[in-house]
What we know:
The protein is mainly alpha-helical.
Amino acid sequence: xxxxxxxxxxxxxxxxxxxxxxxxxxxxxxxxxxxxxxxxxxxxxxxxxxxxxxxxxxxxxxxxxxxxxxxxxxxxxxxxxxxxxxxxxxxxxxxxxxxxxxxxxxxxxxxxxxxxxxxxxxxxxxxxxxxxxxxxxxxxxxxxxxxxxxxxxxxxxxxxxxxxxxxxxxxxxxxxxxxxxxxxxxxxxxxxxxxxxxxxxxxxxxxxxxxxxxxx
Length: 216
């Protein structure tokens, strides 16, 4: 009479083998984190170093600075996945602005600028990414739309801060009309439109170098 087959005992403490799909997802997640770290540093450099604040070039308040960072995150938003472009823009802008406010120019810097720049810039990456599969003209237009959003994202809150004397923008309440008038200098943010040709040049250069339209 034959004996029943016994299953081979499993080694205790040995983790189960990962499937090829799980390994691929882990690799992709690790690569995305590495890309976010690198591009956050690039955006922070463009915000903190390549800026009128670091170069001691005065601009009228509440426009705190003009930076070269848009050229970088405009290009990243077209070339890379949405998660990479969004978090690179958000983290890099926060770090760079924190350096500007607390290190480079603390005498006129305001801590509210740090969340403010994230609120204004991070959605730009999403706007540009939405148009990344379209023509070059649409990609350029998306950067212009994103810049308009950024300008309004600064202008509307700043108007309210001036109007109701919030976050040390004003010592007394001035009313909405005066608040919106004082914040008109925020429209200087539209100067970021000048970075669109630079961003498009970076995109063309990256595509020629890697022979791919998009970089994962």
